[in-house]
Amino acid sequence: xxxxxxxxxxxxxxxxxxxxxxxxxxxxxxxxxxxxxxxxxxxxxxxxxxxxxxxxxxxxxxxxxxxxxxxxxxxxxxxxxxxxxxxxxxxxxxxxxxxxxxxxxxxxxxxxxxxxxxxxxxxxxxxxxxxxxxxxxxxxxxxxxxxxxxxxxxxxxxxxxxxxxxxxxxxxxxxxxxxxxxxxxxxxxxxxxxxxxxxxxxxxxxxxxxxxxxxxxxxxxxxxxxxxxxxxxxxxxxxxxxxxxxxxxxxxxxxxxxxxxxxxxxxxxxxxxxxxxxxxxxxxxxxxxxxxxxxxxxxxxxxxxxxxxxxxxxxxxxxxxxxxxxxxxxxxxxxxxxxxxxxxxxxxxxxxxxxxxxxxxxxxxxxxxxxxxxxxxxxxxxxxxxxxxxxxxxx
Length: 395
Ligand code: GLA
Description:
binds alpha-D-galactopyranose; globular; alpha+beta
């Protein structure tokens, strides 16, 4: 990390040569969700972990009202927005996650200052590993820290502001999972998060001789946003119907599988019924998974991952040819304990639990077979679980 910060310092000085203020560094990670997909917006439990893939920023106040930003992969082209007129940033070609986050900070009483900012990201964009949440969280902590010493550094609130940026500025009705994981991640731990109350618990990921392998289909999540919003409205409909028979339930995930079985026929639209079935049973699987991992039962957890994948594929229908192929090929390998899609779906990544000694063969064989079948070259990351949003120091 020190080498990366040194390089960023040098780059920053060549892009913003006239700024002599103090340079600070902040980081926020992407995430992988182990299980609990498409239920954060139904008040369910999810089980994500922060990655060591992240966004780091180098930042200095610039004495103006403008946030001027660039990134190491943008050939240092500068994009800017005015803190007095953030709405105009909606049409920015790049930078609306940052502008949306600044907007939420201002709405919540934070004092912000104009800044020069250089972003450096290692999360593949559009891969379902929450590169956007990572940008929102690193922006929140950096803008708030540099804006005024009076600003409160409250990571849970920053997660909510990141979600607010997506919902109110970028037009995606996402839940809280990605931003929460990016804010609150902890090295070598997964987070069991109740998305209704935001209560959470860290669970150490020992994984007993296994590794987490992320497989990127390298199919960008096309249609993800419109289909995502469509799924949300479908589960809202399901909840409205079931609420008539189960009054007082706060959300779809508070309906137990037994209650669902009793009333499911009241949902006459088969598609809506399938969506609700996924949500109710997925929530139960998350709670079981946390218990299994606390007892070091990685094998049984792997079985639940496979069940979860069938549910998200057949009932929630957000996978597709590439994700399905990647999971099918993974499950053929000796030493694969569990495999499933992760994130919003429609492309992006799968998450796999693989016995350590089988990892090399997994990457080689799944990679070759996937490429043969789909014509796309995949990428693999044997992942380390890292910390959430934080300031970094250059020694
Ligand atoms: C995206 C959203 C999350 C969550 C997942 C699906 O990553 O940003 O809020 O809904 O999809 O589990």
